[in-house]
Structures are given as structure tokens and as C-alpha cells.
Structure prediction request, 298 residues.
Amino acid sequence: MTCNAADEDLKLGGDYVKLEEGGGEGGARWRVETSTSTSGCCGGGGSDGGGWWWSWWWWAKLILVVLFVAVLGAVFFKWVGPFFMDKEIIPIIIWERKTFSTTMLALIVFGSLTIFPTILLPSTPSMWVAGMTFGYGYGFLLSIGAVPIGVSIPYFIGSLFCHRIHMWLEKYPKKASIIRLAGEGNWFNQFRAVALIRISPFPYVVYNYCAKATDVKYGPYLLGTLVGMVPEIFVALYTGILIKTLANASHDRHSLSASQIIFNVIGFCITVATTVIITLYAKRRLKELQMQEELLLQ
Prediction:
């Protein structure tokens, strides 16, 4: 097929395919020029103000969502929260104080933090109790002291069933590719991957049993777990302290002072924001490590 025109335009839909001379070694080259109109599309700016309208509508939806969440929060703290405190939380706290001594509670919390991960139960409620009973200092020492035992038992049990765990991981390759990162590289790489997995939303109790199957060494596994668990422990302790503060205020039939409300609201916002930021960072770093690993394997 011979084209006699030196410069010919072919219109395909809204795009133009332009044939030009001198496009290489004595030949012609095709150049695609996109001139599709975006007016009326979501991201199209144009002169008709479509981009401005889309930006305004996005902010309007965001404001509506914030207002809706604020109304739900106000309803919860005004009616649902006090009712739940009076019927559930306060009776449990009173029963706990009358039944167990401080030493006994410490043993119960420590024992639950060491046993629950082995039987695939979450340990967060035990950390709430540690926060309500012992505060930040002793609560953190109690929790961080029990975590090594709680994560070591499933690690060594998992080493007895590596073949079965490998078969199970093959059924979920996408999830398995994340935890297999912990077994790659040197000691520091394994430590970093384990810490990021602990911070990320990956199921805590599942990874305890799968860790050995990924060939991660016990040293980086344990140290990475301790570092990665620190944010979760502080968030759980703060939640327990906040629950106790609200329960005491509800039980004594007096409202919190303005300074207490401001302190609790700021503390809650900082806790949520910090948790979200750290979690998003851990997910992003895991994704980057996963992409680097895939590039190396290619």
C-alpha cells in the first residue's frame, strides 16, 4: 500500500493517527494524537468548569460523610455508650475487682497472652484488662513480657507441620507471597519483614504458625515481633484506660470535665491517626519489598 500524501490524517473515533515523512531510516512513521474531548467526564477540566464541579462534589460528599459519622458518634456517646457501660462493662469491672486480687489479675493477663495465640484467639482483650488494671507502665511490661512466649509456642509447633503449611500456602499464593518475604535475605531483612508483617493488618495468630514454613530464623522472628507489637500494645493499653475512665464516670453518675474530654478526644484522635499512618506505611513497605522480590526472580 502506497501513500502519496506527505501528511495524511486519519480520524479514529476521537483520536487522530498522523502519517509523517522522515520517521526513521527513509520511511514514514505513524504518530497518534489524542484529541478526545473530556468535557463531561469526571476528571475533565476544559473550559466548561467540569473539573471545578467534580472537585466541589467530592468535597461535599466528604463533608456529608464526616457529618454522618459525627452524628453517629454523638448518638453512641449519648445513649448507646452509657447503656452499654451500665449493662456490660461496669458489672464486669466490679466483678473483676471483687473476685481477683491485683496479683491474680496479673497472672491471668500474663497467662492469657501466652496461651491465646496458640489456640488462635486474639490477645487484645487481655491487653485491655492490663491497661484498665495496671496502666501504661506495668501494663506494657506485663504484655511485652508475655508476647515472646505467646509467639514462640506456635512457631515451634508450626515447625512440626511445615509440609502441611506449605500445601496450605499454595492455595493462597497472594497472601503467601507476603509472609514468604520474611524468610528472604539476611538477618536484618528478615527482622524488618517480620516487624512490618506484625504492624500490617495480616492476621496475627495465623502468621505465628506459618512463620517457620517461610524459613525465617527464630532470632529475627522474635525481635521483629517484639518491635512490631509495640504499637498494638500501646493502642490496646490506651483503649483499656479509656474504657475504665468512661466506666468510672458513668458509674459515679458524673460527667467528665472539659479538660478530661479534650484530653480523651485528642488522645483518641492521635491514637487512631498514628495507627492508620503506621499501618499504611507497613503495607506500602511490604508491597515495595514484594515488588523488589518479584523483579529479582524475573
